[in-house]
Structures are given as C-alpha cells and as structure tokens.
C-alpha cells in the first residue's frame, strides 16, 4: 500500500465503503495541471525523447526510451510483457511524470502539460481498459468525446459513423451492451470526435477475435490514410508490424530495435526473440 | 508506551484534576466515571473498526441492550405479572424464534423453485400465530399495576452480574446481525447497523412488558452504598469531618469514587486483554485481513468467520459499557438514547484517539467526553462575552444564550473534521 | 361487503399518505444517489442537509408571512423554497470547498469520506439547532384540504370519507415536476450528460476534457435543491423538527439502496416501495377489512401488523431482504 493515511483499505468485502472506482487512475502520478508548453521547432510530429521515469516513487520503468511518430504514419510499439510499452505511451500522454526527457507535439514542448491539456492540444488517447462509458448510448459516448468542442460536431460524428457503420445502427444502444470489437470501435470513435492531431491506441485488439482484429487494423489504416498519425501499443506484434510504417521494439524500458515495420519483420534477431521464429 | 502517550494521558489527568480544583470534585468525578464508560465503548468500536475495519454505526443499540440487561438482571421480579401472563409471553417468544428457525430450515432444505414462497408462507402464518399468542399475554402483563410496574420485572440478582450479562446480550444481538449483514458491502453494513440500533430503541420504547417502555425503570439497585446511608453512618461522618468535609459532599464523593474504582478495574482488565489480543497471532491475522482481505482469503483465512468473531466481541464491549452506564445512572430511560450521542460520538472518540490503537481509543474516550461535558460552560462563557455589549432585552442575546447547548454538536463535528484533516491517524497512531 | 367504501378507506389511509411520503423519500434518495454516483460516497450528512435547507425555507416563510405575502390557498412556503435552496447550496458548496475538496485531491478512500460526512453531519446538526432550536416548527398555511372527508362524504354519500391534504397534492405535483426536470437535465443537456459520464467512468471523463470541479459543483447544486424541496414538502406534510430529519436518513438510504445506489430511477422506485411498505404495515386494517368481510368474520382487533413506532423496522427488513437476494438493488446500481 502506497498511498498515505487516506488510502488505507479498511472495510468489508469491497475493501471500501463505497465505490473503489472512485480511487482514480491507478497508482500513476500524472503530470499536475498548470504547466506550460514551449516552442521546440523541428523534429518529428510527436516525439518522446529519451524518456526516463516510473510510477509514483517506485523504480524507473523507462530508461532513455525514445518514441516518435510522423504525419500520416502508423507507429507501433511492441515488445515482451513488462517491457514498458504501455508505460511509454502513458508517458507521452502525461499520465506519469518524467524524470528526464521531453515530449514534443507539433513543434511545441509539452512535457509539463497535464493529460487533459494534451487532449485540448490534439492528442487523442484510447486507454486499454475502461475506454467507453458503458451506461451511455453510443451516440452519447461520441458526444462526450467532443465535449471540449464548442463548434458543430455533427460532421465529425457522420465521419465516425462512415468509418464504423455498425455504430450508426446501434447509436441509441448502451455502449456496455455491445460486443468487444464494437466497444473498441466506440472507443476509437470517441477519441476521433476531438478531431485529434494524433491518435494513440493502447492495445486496441486486446481480447478480440482474430477476425475482428483484422477488421480493426483495416479501420486504423483507413484512419491513418486521412493523414492522422497513429501510435499504438500492440501485443500481436507480427500483425501490427505488418501495417506499421515505423516500429519500436522495447526491452526493459529501452529501445532495443527501431525501424520500419518491414525491416523489423525481416530482422533475424527480432524474429527470433519476439516473433517466434 | 511512548513519550507522547504518557504526555497525552497526563493531559487528560490534568484536565480532570483541573476540573476538580476549579469547578468541583463532584463534576470531576462525574466526568471521570463517564469517561471510563466511554473508554470501554470506544475500545469496543476500536476492536471492530481499528482492528478489523468493520463499519458499525449501531453502537447505540448495543449500549441500550446492555442497559436492558441491568433491568432484567437486577430488578425484583413482579410475581403478579408472571402469573398473569408470564408463561404465555415466554411461550410466544419461543414460538416466534421457532417460526424463524423453521423458516431458515425451510429455506435451506427445500428445492430452489418454491422455497421463497414456502418461506414467505411460514413467516406470514407464523407472524399471525405469534401475535395471537403474544398480544393477550402482553395486555395481561401490562395491566398489572401499570403505574408502578406493568412489566415482568427482572431476576432480582446482584447488579454487578448485569454487566457481563449485558455484554452477553449485546453479543447475542451482534451474532444475529453479523450472520445476516456481515457478508454485505460495508456501506450497507453501516446502514444496516444504523437501522438495527433504531429498532432496538423502538423495542425498548414500545414493549412495556419488557422494561416499562417510555415509563422508564427507576431505582435500579446499586453496587455501591447510598449517600443517605453514609450520611446516617456515624463512623463515616466522623471520618469525613476528619478530612474537613461536610457529610453530604463526602457521601456523594464516596459513592462516585466507588463507581470510579469499579469502572477503572473493568477498563484496566479489558485494556490488558485488548492489548494482548492486538499483539497475539489472532490480532496479527485480523490486521492482515483488514489490510488485504483477498490475500488473507487466498491464504485460507476464514474472513467472514473472523469478522463475525470480532464484531461480536466489540459489540459485547459496548453492551458491557451500556450496562455500566445504566447502573451508574440508576435508571433506564429509553428516550435518552440518541444516535448522535451514543453512536457517532463514540466514533469521534475512536477517530480522534487513533483507530487501531487501544490506548488511543481509551484516550479519545476520556478526551472527547471531557470536551462534550465542558463545551457547554465554555460556550456559556464565550456567549456571555459576545453578548455582553447587547441590551438586556435583546432578542438576539436571548437566542444566543439559549442556543449554547447546541454548540456541543458543532464542536464535536469540528473536532472530528480537524483531526481527520490534520492528524488522520489520530492522536495516538497505530504503530 | 362494501368494496367501494373499502377502496375509499384504503385510499384515504394508505394510498394517498404513502404516495406523498414516497415522493418525499424519492426526492431525498435522489440526492443521496447523486452524491454516491458522482462523489462516490454515502453521505451521512444528507438528513441534516435537508434540515438546514428546510430551516432556511421556514425562516423565509416566516419573513414572507410577516410581510403579509401569501399564496392564497397554497402554502407560503412554496415561495420560500428558492430561498431555502439558496441557503442549502451556500452551505453545501462551502462545505465542499473547505472539507470535501481536500479529500478529493488526496484521492481518499470513500470510507474516509463517509467518516468525514459524519463530522459534517454533527456540524450541520449543531448549526440548524443553533439557529432554529430543536423544537417542532409548523410553517404550513393556506387551505388545509383539497377535499376534506366531510365534503367527500356529502358529495358521494359514502360512509367513508376521502381527505386529500393540500400538502399531499402539492408534494406529488412538485415531486413529478422536479424529477422530470432532473431526468431531462441528465439526458438532454451537455452538463447533465457530462455528469453521467463522470459517474460512469471518471478517468475517461477526465480524458474527454470534462471538468470534474464543475461536475461536482452542479451535483451539489442539485443535491441542495433536492434536499430542500424534499425537506420542505415533508415539513409541510408533517412538521419541521431537526431530529426527525436526521432520522429520515434511514428510510432515505433504504430507498436508495433498495433501488440500487447510483441509479436515479432506482431511487424513485425505492422511495415508493419503502413508503408503501411502511404505511401498509403500520396501518390498522380493521376498517378496510370491516367493509370487505362479511359481518361474522369481522376482525376484533385493529389488524395492525406492527405499531407505528416500528416503521424503521419496516425499512430495515426490506433493505435486508433486497440486499440478501439482489445485492446491487432492484435497478442495478453502480456495479462496484
């Protein structure tokens, strides 16, 4: 137990008197609000440069890890379990404070910005778990995605429905009643509603069937073709690298191999270590 | 025992002694005696909350159960009432329990499909039969000299016996509650215990045959001599004179000291037992369960069983304290049981003292009780100061002076909030 | 056998009082369930928030009456409700600022917040008594009845009278309006939807740019309004006494839990279930049965299942039954 006098678990079965979901975003210590962005011209569209950091006061998980994605590209982070793939993405998104390194988006240094502020600056993030509002309808989920937008977002919603036609049919259904693949579509759709400048997906295909996975990848390619950079963390390394313009293989929080998807697939060592030969 | 513990207990002693010097020794002893009782109660709640993390807000119910025990044990029986309907009444109660037992048995044995209906049928039919037997018996008992008795009376046993009986009775009630409610989520447990406490008070107020309801039972036997007897005792008067005291003061002091010694003995025994339990393997297991229930369960600990155990134990302490308190008061007055005073105030004691620390709970009991008593005179003084400049007939002045008594609740709330905010582990933290 | 008279007696003594009481409970339970859903703790200070808001309304009513303002046949207190809501909102928001916000920032466990709310309960309790005292206050005025038993008998020629108190009529009308507005707000406005989103998935709500402090602010405003309206309606119907309001905590929580904590629809259903059971079980059925049964079978006793002093027992038993058989409540509250 990490968290001081107010986080003691004392109680019955549920370990809390009411709703433990209220405890918030796990043990991560996100970047606090109030930081500012600085101009940092040049370099790739979104880049986390030499990121070092970990959760709370615990040991570092990332060690000088660099992740970048260019306009119109799909970048993929793969690697063995516990390599810090999701942590690297969370670091880009500001969900944990970096001890060293910097994050730059569209020529601006945003290392000090809180996650919410990064959303406002055009980062669309789809977490791995709890990425939809289960009790709300599909349409309401999309509306919540566009919460920060004050302009008319019906056009964007139509685009999302065009991309994921099944959602149009189920727009009045509670999102929690949908199948796993459809929920992921809602989640991606929700993130697209902000009209992000970069889309970040944390294991979008976790727990869906291979057919659904292929379909999801097709959609993601479609999204990337519109010019929107996509960065994703994937367990299914081979399939992900096949669609990747740029791949990052992380091992123990460090960049082990970097290259185009094709290069990595062809690399003998990557094949041997991570792709099962 | 750390320096901090010693200092804080010295502070409590100083406060009580100061009251004796500045106000009166009678007041000081009154505070001390109820402080001792409060300490036992908060020890009980600390067992449940501090050690096991059980959220019991039905303390008042267990305290009242202890009070009832004093009546049932120590008052003389009323033979006319027993002959009028005692047997029938007991029969009805046994019948009621049998109905519940039958219902439980039916629920466990019968096939899934219709056992719900069977249970409902048994309970409904049983309820009417029970009422048919009970009501006339109750009527007969309550008609026997209602002005003076109108109830079955007690067993006429020594009043000190009522203290362990009070604990046992409360333990019994706790067993029933624990069996049904401990498996529930803890906020539900809180509401459930809150409800049970209200029901127990409703029973005390309503069932005149049991303890005269709102007509109150007064003149309970005492474990200490009566003041008037002491004053008539020549030897006592002489000794008092030797100490420079008038007989009246000396007798009241002696009586209160007597209670104080009895209570202190109980508290010390309980505190020693609680400390031993806390540091025993049993106590370590309880804390392990509290800190991580799932892990404890995975290691094969019977979490629900342990919870039931500690719930019963803590409630028994509250019952014991309730019996002590009713003995001290010499009367059982159901309308005086208020949740703010007997449930939530005890919680303030535990939180302020330091949950999980027995010494802390005892300290909190004394300190908060002292504050509860002394807030009123302090408030009076403050209000006197505030209103000093106002006209004699000012309505605001009257209102302010008349509202002083309500400062208590306000102060307790503020104390709790301040402690939670700035010393969340209490004055004497666990470990 | 006299079915019409039996029905009238039933309506008079059970249905109408229970509908009114149920509406009051439902409004109270809605407040509790909103706090649970959004701030994620069981607020023990809710009964006393009701008492405070009602007290403000009572004071405003007296002020209006003193100025000679009246609503004719309707109680003046209706005009005072906004003042009561304002008073309650001021107190609740101040509390949130001074007390609760700190624990939110600390991401304190809900159980800590429950204990904090116990402290707040003490403070509110003291404040209310400090201002208005612990005694019963009546503040209802205007016409007492919409239909009095006497008029009803004269109108219909039946043996049984049917009385509908003005306060009962007002309770139902106001409750329907308030609930309709709340639901419309939650499902049709941007802020309402953001409240539901925050209740559903706090982290994702933050990611979507929903401002938690704003959601909390609006929630407290709704809670203040619901608590005050429920309290004023209850006070008009019965009377205003701070301690009674504290005790209402039990049936209100029972309603919210029976319906499913966090589910507004459940809170309403729960309110009526608790109210009907309470009134039904503590009502002496002799009169109704007397009309229904042939004379030979007429009951000799009162046929009262439990004396009215045991009404808490009714809420409690229903609570336990529902929890044992359907732990998330009838309407599937927030799954934990």
Automatic annotation (TrEMBL), chain A:
PROSITE patterns: ABC_TRANSPORTER_2 (PS50893). Pfam families: ABC_tran (PF00005). It comes from the Bacteria. GO terms for biological process: L-amino acid transport. The keyword rRNA processing does not apply. The keyword Nucleotide-binding applies. InterPro entries: AAA+_ATPase, ABC_transporter-like_ATP-bd, BCAA_Transport_ATP-bd_LivF, P-loop_NTPase. Residues 46-277 form the ABC transporter domain. Residues 1-37 are annotated as: Disordered. Residues 7-16 have a biased composition (Basic and acidic residues). Keywords: Amino-acid transport, ATP-binding, Nucleotide-binding, Transport. One of its GO terms (molecular function) is ATP binding. SUPFAM superfamilies: P-loop containing nucleoside triphosphate hydrolases. Belongs to the ABC transporter superfamily. This is Branched-chain amino acid transport ATP-binding protein LivF. It comes from Salipiger mucosus DSM 16094.
TrEMBL record, chain B:
It is a multi-pass membrane protein. It is found in: Cell membrane. One of its GO terms (molecular function) is branched-chain amino acid transmembrane transporter activity. One of its GO terms (cellular component) is plasma membrane. It comes from the Bacteria. InterPro entries: ABC_transp_permease, LivM-like. Keywords: Cell membrane, Membrane, Transmembrane, Transmembrane helix. The chain crosses the membrane at residues 30-47, 54-75, 87-107, 114-133, 153-176, 188-204, 257-278, 308-328, 340-359, 366-386, 406-423. The keyword Transmembrane helix applies. It holds the Pfam family BPD_transp_2. Its main location: membrane. The keyword Transmembrane helix applies. PANTHER family: HIGH-AFFINITY BRANCHED-CHAIN AMINO ACID TRANSPORT PROTEIN BRAE (PTHR30482:SF10), HIGH-AFFINITY BRANCHED-CHAIN AMINO ACID TRANSPORT SYSTEM PERMEASE (PTHR30482). This is Branched-chain amino acid transport system permease protein LivM.
Automatic annotation (TrEMBL), chain C:
One of its GO terms (molecular function) is L-leucine transmembrane transporter activity. Belongs to the binding-protein-dependent transport system permease family. LivHM subfamily. It holds the Pfam family BPD_transp_2. The chain crosses the membrane at residues 6-39, 77-99, 111-132, 168-186, 215-236, 305-325. It is a multi-pass membrane protein. Its main location: membrane. CDD domains: TM_PBP1_LivH_like (cd06582). This is High-affinity branched-chain amino acid transport system permease protein LivH. Keywords: Amino-acid transport, Cell inner membrane, Cell membrane, Membrane, Transmembrane, Transmembrane helix, Transport. GO terms for cellular component: plasma membrane. It is found in: Cell membrane. It comes from Salipiger mucosus DSM 16094. GO terms for biological process: D-alanine transmembrane transport; L-alanine transport; L-isoleucine import across plasma membrane.
């Amino acid at each position: 137990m990490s968290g001081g006098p107010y986080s003691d678990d004392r109680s019955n079965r549920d370990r809390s008197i009411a709703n433990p979901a209220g405890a918030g975003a796990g043990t991560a210590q996100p970047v606090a609000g109030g930081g500012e962005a600085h101009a940092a011209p040049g370099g790739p569209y979104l880049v986390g440069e030499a990121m070092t950091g970990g959760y709370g006061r615990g040991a570092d998980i990332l060690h000088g890890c660099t992740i970048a994605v260019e306009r119109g590209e799909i970048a993929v982070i793969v690697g063995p379990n516990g390599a810090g793939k999701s942590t690297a993405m969370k670091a880009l998104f500001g969900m944990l404070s970096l001890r060293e390194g910097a994050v730059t988006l569209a020529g601006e240094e945003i290392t000090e910005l809180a996650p919410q502020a990064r959303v406002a600056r055009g980062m669309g993030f789809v977490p791995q778990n709890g990425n939809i509002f289960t009790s709300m309808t599909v349409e309401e989920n999309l509306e919540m995605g566009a919460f920060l937008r004050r302009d008319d977002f019906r056009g964007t919603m139509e685009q999302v429905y065009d991309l994921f036609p099944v959602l149009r049919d189920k727009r009045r259904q509670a999102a929690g009643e949908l199948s796993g693949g459809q929920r992921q579509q809602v989640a991606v759709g929700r993130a697209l509603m902000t009209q992000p400048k970069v889309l970040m997906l944390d294991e979008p295909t976790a727990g869906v069937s291979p057919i659904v996975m292929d379909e999801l990848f097709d959609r993601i390619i479609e999204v990337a073709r519109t010019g929107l950079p996509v960065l994703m963390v994937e367990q299914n390394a081979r399939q992900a690298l096949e669609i990747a313009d740029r791949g990052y293989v992380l091992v123990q929080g460090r960049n082990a191999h970097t290259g185009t998807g094709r290069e990595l697939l062809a690399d003998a060592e990557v094949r041997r270590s991570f792709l099962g030969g | 025992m750390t320096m901090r513990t010693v200092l804080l207990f010295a502070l409590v002693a100083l406060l009580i002694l100061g009251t004796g010097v500045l106000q009166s020794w009678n007041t000081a002893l009154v505070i001390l005696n109820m402080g001792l009782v409060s300490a036992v109660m908060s020890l009980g709640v600390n067992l449940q909350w501090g050690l096991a993390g059980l959220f019991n807000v039905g303390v008042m119910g267990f305290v009242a159960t202890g009070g009832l025990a004093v009546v049932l044990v120590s008052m003389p029986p009323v033979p006319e009432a027993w002959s009028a309907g005692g047997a029938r009444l007991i029969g009805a109660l046994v019948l009621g329990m049998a109905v519940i037992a039958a219902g439980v048995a039916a629920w466990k044995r019968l096939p899934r499909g219709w056992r719900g209906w069977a249970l409902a049928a048994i309970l409904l039919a049983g309820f009417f039969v029970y009422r048919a037997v009970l009501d006339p018996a109750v009527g007969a008992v309550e008609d026997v000299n209602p002005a003076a008795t109108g109830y079955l009376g007690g067993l006429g046993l020594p009043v000190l016996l009522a203290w362990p009986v009070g604990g046992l009775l409360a333990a019994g009630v706790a067993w029933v509650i624990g069996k049904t409610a401990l498996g529930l989520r803890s906020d539900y447990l809180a509401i459930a215990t809150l409800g049970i406490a209200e029901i127990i008070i409703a029973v005390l107020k309503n069932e005149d045959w049991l303890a005269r309801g709102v007509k109150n039972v007064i003149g309970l036997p005492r474990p200490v001599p009566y003041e008037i007897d002491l004053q008539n005792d020549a030897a006592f008067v002489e000794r008092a004179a030797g100490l420079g005291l008038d007989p009246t003061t000396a007798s009241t002091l002696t009586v209160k000291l007597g209670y104080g010694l009895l209570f202190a003995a109980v508290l010390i025994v309980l505190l020693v037992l609680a400390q031993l339990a806390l540091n025993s393997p049993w106590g370590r297991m309880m804390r392990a369960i509290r800190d991580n229930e799932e892990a404890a369960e995975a290691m094969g600990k019977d979490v629900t069983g342990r919870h039931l155990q500690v719930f019963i134990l803590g409630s028994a302490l509250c019952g014991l304290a309730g019996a002590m308190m009713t003995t001290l008061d010499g009367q059982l007055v159901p309308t005086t049981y208020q949740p703010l005073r007997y449930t939530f105030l005890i919680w303030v004691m535990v939180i302020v003292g330091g949950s999980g620390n027995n010494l802390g709970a005892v300290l909190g009991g004394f300190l908060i009780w002292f504050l509860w008593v002394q807030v009123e005179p302090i408030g009076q003084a403050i209000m006197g100061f505030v209103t000093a400049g106002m006209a004699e007939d000012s309505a605001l002045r009257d209102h302010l002076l008349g509202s002083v008594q309500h400062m208590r609740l306000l102060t307790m709330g503020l104390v709790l909030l301040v402690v939670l905010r700035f010393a969340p582990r209490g004055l004497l933290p666990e470990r | 056998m006299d079915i019409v008279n039996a029905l009238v007696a039933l309506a008079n003594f059970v249905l109408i009082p229970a509908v009114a009481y149920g509406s009051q409970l439902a409004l109270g339970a809605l407040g509790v369930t909103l706090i649970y859903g959004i701030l994620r703790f069981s607020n023990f200070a809710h009964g006393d928030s009701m008492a405070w808001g009602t007290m403000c309304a009572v004071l405003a009513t007296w002020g209006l009456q003193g100025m000679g303002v009246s609503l004719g046949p309707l109680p003046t207190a209706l005009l005072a409700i906004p003042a009561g809501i304002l008073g309650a909102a001021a107190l609740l928001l101040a509390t949130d600022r001074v007390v609760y916000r700190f624990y939110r920032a600390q991401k304190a466990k809900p159980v800590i917040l429950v204990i904090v709310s116990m402290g707040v309960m003490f403070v509110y309790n003291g404040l209310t008594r400090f201002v208005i005292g612990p005694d019963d206050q009546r503040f209802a005025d205007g016409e007492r009845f919409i239909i009095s038993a006497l008029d009803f008998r004269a109108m219909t020629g039946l043996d049984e009278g049917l009385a509908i108190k003005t306060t009962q009529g007002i309770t139902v009308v106001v409750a329907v309006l308030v609930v309709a507005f709340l639901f419309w707000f939650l499902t049709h406005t941007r802020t309402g939807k953001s409240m539901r989103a925050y209740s559903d998935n706090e982290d994702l709500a933050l990611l979507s740019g929903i401002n938690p402090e704003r959601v909390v602010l609006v929630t407290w405003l709704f809670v203040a309004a619901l608590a005050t309206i429920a309290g004023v309606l209850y006070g008009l119907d019965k009377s205003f006494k701070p301690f009674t309001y504290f005790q209402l905590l039990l049936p209100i929580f029972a309603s919210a839990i029976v319906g499913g904590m966090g589910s507004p629809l459940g809170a309403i259903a729960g309110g009526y279930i608790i109210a009907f059971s309470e009134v039904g079980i503590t009502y002496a059925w002799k009169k109704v049965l007397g009309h229904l049964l042939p004379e030979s079978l007429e009951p000799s006793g009162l046929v009262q299942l439990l004396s009215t002093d045991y009404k808490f027992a009714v809420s409690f038993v229903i609570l336990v039954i529902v929890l044992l058989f359907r732990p998330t409540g009838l309407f599937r509250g927030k799954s934990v």
